[in-house]
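Predict the 3D structure for this chain.
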Amino acid sequence: MFRLVLLLTVVTLAAGARLPPPRLDGKIVGGKPVKIEEYPYQVSLQSYGSHICGGSILGPNKILTAAHCTSGSSASSLSIRHSSTYRGSEGVVIKVASIAQNPAYNPFTTSDDVSVLTLAESIKDSDIGKPIAMVEATAAEGGRAAVCTGWGTLSSGGSSPLQLQAVDVEEVDRKECNKSYDGRITDTMICFASPGKDSCQGDSGGPLVVGDKQVGIVSWGRGCARPDYPGVYAHVAPLRKFIDKNL
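Done. Predicted structure below.
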């Protein structure tokens, strides 16, 4: 993932623009340790056997993640670990057979930040490994409470726990979030935050869930849990057309 960060930095400097950094290395701030039985749709996306991002199970052989997690990667370099509370052990590892990355994904704005992975084998449905439903394409925004899950450090620059973490966040008004980010919030983004709580780098690609439906994918943000900068998530509702096409 370092190469991706470096590439984005070089491109940014060349363009003379200030770009929002994607959340590449997976961190939950202000959360609590949980077990996979509580969030059986959560998976770890791995590159050459090392955790790089989160993801969610959509079907027996389909995984939803962020486009910035797959950009520049070959399917042969990726695998997922499912049915595990712990980031690097237990559960089952399955190789990725193919990557459907949204062609509309824009690395400069992080808009349309979604990929659908097809696995080489199917996941056997169980209490610790099962699909999550997606929010309807027509779902209304506003006033929602959500939970975000992932592995990673508990604070910016801190140590990474092995156990899955979960954090509760609240939806932030689109206009307010857009103002915080100087107009960078597109229709394929939504914002959630709570004081001292946030997803962070490396939770990237992981699920943001309201009730029993996934509404977002961890995407980007300025810092982690900063009061003036909510977490920004890929907005599943308007991305359903692309996702459904690749299921």
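Helices lie at 2-15, 67-70, 174-180, 236-245.
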